[in-house]
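Below is one record:
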Amino acid sequence: MGNLDFNPIFTPKSITQSFPGQVSRIGSLTDKALQVNDFVNRLESETRKIEAFGPEIPLCMLLVNHAIVELKEESMVLMNSSNAQQELEEFMPLKNTFDDGDANVEIIKDQKDKENGDKKNWLSSTHLWNTNEDLNQKANLEATQMIKKVKQEENKEKEETEKENAGRAIRKQRRRWSAELHRLFVDALQHLGGSQVATPKQIRELMKVDGLTNDEVKSHLQLTCKPTTPLRNILSRVIFFICGFMGLTFFLSFHLANSQLNEYYYYASCPNLAMIVKYGVWAAMKDDTRMAASLLRLHFHDCFVNGCDGSVLLDDTKKFKGEKNAGPNRNSIRGFEVIDNIKADVERACPSIVSCVDILTLAAREAVVLSGGPNWPVTLGRRDGLTANIKAANTNLPSPFESLAAITAKFAAVGLDSRDVVVLSGAHTIGLAQCFTFKHRLFDFKGTGQPDPKLDTLLATNLKTTCPNVAKSNTNLSSLDMVSTYMFDNAYYKNLVNNAGLLESDQALMSDPQTASMVNDYSMYPYLFYRDFSTSMMKLSNIGVITGLNGEVRKKCGEING
């Protein structure tokens, strides 16, 4: 491990230390004064820009104001010195040469002080017939009075600001924040992504409470989520967690019973969730590229049976049989160990917070993204189911042997339409299929003893090599998309247009004019497919979800909590 000692490369200096030193290198006193005044004006302009953040950066504001006062003092001294010099030069130009007869005037110059540019030493070492002591005293008096006046005005403004803020605080406290009002406040804050990004106006608009003002929301936001340090980017997640914790006693009974899915559901309680899931999926795909398609299919089979509740992950128990051994799933669905590994990592980071079904939903999205497909927002907050339904798994899941009408009806039963059928079938652009799911198309299509006439002959010939007409070949694997097996793209639809769809249910999409039109569109416009696939996946992941106090958050995805 390297040395953790902090050794700064340079020692920073304050403005009042460094800037006057830079100005002192300017020859003319007038130019020096103008330079300082210009810097003061720019500094005051920048200060006005950050005044709104004054309560959060008090030390910064104090230092800046101190620098402004110091520079103003420096400016006054330079201006008065410049005026004195001009009056002296008016009587006797310093750059002129003098005759031998000018004995009444003696000029003594200290070469060392001249080189250093110290105006005080230069003036004191120059002996003239008129020293202008009265003028210098008057100038110093005026400078002192001006500085006192500036400080008095600043103190007065500060006192007025403090009184105004105190008055606002009293007025804001007049509203009594009930539990229901605070619940609306926290919901709005969570929806907007936390106190570090949400503004009082945005929160008020989402709360939709008559008579509520931005000042009242701001006051409540500061009271509930007031940061104690200006390092907002470091403490933002901690602040948001504190906000939720302080509001828990107010809205727990209301919020949990009526909670909805939200993209920021785990923003405070498990901020690294997305990265943990992404890494888990990436690691699994690194060892087994096929895993991307398996995770996507696992999510699909979960949501089609009793909704997206993680029931497909459950093992058999004495009370029920799991869905893993249902006909469409037996020796087919896979990826359980990937979800279990991710769940273990999540539990180490956020114990008993994130449901298994939310992990599965995120994993399906990451599988598509890591395969080159589209990204889409995943709303979170699902709860895990308490049982499995093997009967529903046997009847509700679409089969590659079914007609397009039967498959469309099963989609409609869960709230999906014909476009969703076409779009979600596009998931077959990645992954493999076992030979038994399509071998009948090669040797005995519908009892004819002949191959499926709609199947491309070259494809049929190649498939017969992989899947010979013997029973032991049933579990052999073939690519669903021969063009780009592991790349999520629109080649699947191009294959259908060319009669090169592997499954009978896939090629059936070309048998209906409506679905065939969609297939043609997606084969030509990949971005259209990506857009609609994202939409359909969001619809799929919201089927029959469990929220609020229902269900549970499993500690292990394969079993319900004891």
